[in-house]
DNA sequence: CAGTGGTCTAGACCACGCG
DNA sequence: GCGTGGTCTAGACCACTGG
């Protein structure tokens, strides 16, 4: 029945956060203050606050003016469909940019192009031979100068040879989905997977993730009538993003969620 | 540049895991062995392994025959659409059950019914007054006897009074979506949100989550032509579930993913 | 019983960054 | 300078559980 001390301390602090006694951005008591208040050693205090850190509730900030502060949960909404439908007049990247800006933030992105040998898993998704080559187009997306998500899209090499723009390290002005459609590779079916997991150290580094921040992974495989033509891995910082998808008559939803009417 | 000791140790162990030198279910060296090997104190060893635990890679098991073992990443696939489309002959719960069983697991569930006053957030989603009552139907779903996900669905009270079966603490045989459709409340639009976050202690307890396990949250608001009629919160243990949604012509996808043909 | 991890103490020195 | 958190040590006792 009796909880260990560090859990009791964590519970009490957590209660103050979820009840609103401590608000976003507020500072928790310092470690010496918590030692004093609960009559425990510093390590016990740290065990307690480590729990809160790994729950994503609290962030530790070193330095004289630092401390432990209650994290913010600002969330950017990403629409899984807006950027994708061939009928759309807008390129993917522009769709993402306009979405971010419509939500009042500043958007920018970095682009990379690589040629990679396909892992068995990826080869199966693209229905090509393992170890065959693919074009990897990576896009790191920044919101207010802070890395927020990244997108890795793989195209089979034989397709890239038919649509040479995919091999250019420049942005495709009209968006790759439209480009492919113009060349006769219109994607008419999507297979979407959603996964939640902890980041690899590399992802945590790329996205500047605090401890206790999971990632939201959206994997989209796009099919023409004939074959899969690409697979995209969208890696979102879980504390700063959510994904929205709609089905059926969007006009009904727009009546109750005006922000959805935006197109 | 120099990494702290505990990170170096964690990196080395992580490398053995991701490279496959240590496989799922394998035991890591014990804490005394790691102290010896790296010449550090026990706390430093624990700091190192705590990192791996919170990355979801490793699970600690107390007891004589315990140790630290590499976690499994078995993943159940949940189709966001199968259970929902009014054309489906199958009830929601049965759809879930058959999906689990088709993947070779054993399925069971517990059901609860509660009446709750709506928070402002929920009231807005359902487009009713804050503090008005709603029916909450909770379903805890078990796979192989282990809690795997839970679903909380809220219906506005005025709707439940028109469709009294919603107030019964028994399962609705044909599924609530079909029931509502039969009574003239056919859902023709969905608003789906996907979120990744760390669990609350309550969720961790309900789902038996190990430290370092995030949850995948799927929020679905269902609309008839007239209004929102329900909002469902699907809480999935991130280490054991993924969600799949398809768009467009499913037959194309089925050609390359035979398991999708199962409907 | 013996060996695993779980909790806790009382110290120490360091890196950082505002005043 | 000096107070914050970051890292690390060397101990201690406990709870659990298979042999």
TrEMBL record, chains A, B:
InterPro entries: Bact_HTH_transcr_reg, Chorismate_lyase_/UTRA_dom_sf, Tscrpt_reg_HTH_GntR, UTRA, WH-like_DNA-bd_sf, WH_DNA-bd_sf
Keyword hit for Transcription regulation: yes
SUPFAM superfamilies: Chorismate lyase-like (SSF64288), Winged helix' DNA-binding domain (SSF46785)
GO-annotated molecular function: DNA binding; DNA-binding transcription factor activity
Keywords on record: DNA-binding, Transcription, Transcription regulation
Keyword Hydrolase: no
Matches recorded under PANTHER family: GNTR-FAMILY TRANSCRIPTIONAL REGULATOR, MANNOSYL-D-GLYCERATE TRANSPORT/METABOLISM SYSTEM REPRESSOR MNGR-RELATED
UniProt-recorded name of the protein: GntR family transcriptional regulator
Gene source species: Micromonospora pallida
Organism placement in taxonomy: Bacteria, Bacillati, Actinomycetota, Actinomycetes, Micromonosporales
């Amino acid at each position: 029945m009796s909880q260990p001390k560090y859990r009791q301390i964590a519970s009490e602090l957590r209660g103050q956060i979820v009840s609103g006694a401590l608000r976003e951005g507020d500072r928790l008591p310092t470690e010496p203050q918590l030692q004093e208040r609960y009559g425990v050693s510093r390590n016990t205090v740290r065990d307690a606050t480590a729990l809160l850190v790994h729950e994503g509730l609290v962030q530790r900030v070193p330095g004289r003016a630092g401390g432990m502060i209650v994290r913010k949960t600002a969330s950017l909404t990403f629409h899984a469909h807006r950027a994708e439908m061939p009928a759309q007049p807008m390129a993917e990247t522009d769709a993402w940019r306009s979405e971010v800006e419509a939500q009042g933030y500043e958007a920018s992105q970095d682009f990379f192009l690589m040629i990679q040998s396909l892992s068995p898993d990826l080869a199966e998704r693209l229905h090509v031979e393992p170890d065959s080559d693919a074009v990897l187009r990576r896009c790191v997306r920044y919101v207010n100068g802070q890395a927020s998500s990244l997108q890795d899209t793989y195209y089979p090499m034989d397709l890239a040879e038919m649509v040479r723009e995919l091999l250019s390290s420049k942005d495709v002005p009209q968006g790759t989905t439209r480009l492919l459609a113009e060349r006769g590779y219109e994607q008419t079916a999507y297979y979407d997977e959603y996964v939640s997991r902890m980041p690899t150290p590399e992802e945590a580094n790329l996205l500047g993730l605090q401890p206790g921040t999971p990632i939201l992974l959206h994997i989209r495989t796009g099919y023409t009538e004939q074959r899969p033509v690409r697979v995209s891995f969208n890696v979102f910082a879980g504390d700063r993003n959510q994904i929205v998808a709609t089905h059926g008559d969007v006009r009904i939803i727009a009546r109750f969620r005006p922000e959805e009417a935006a197109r």
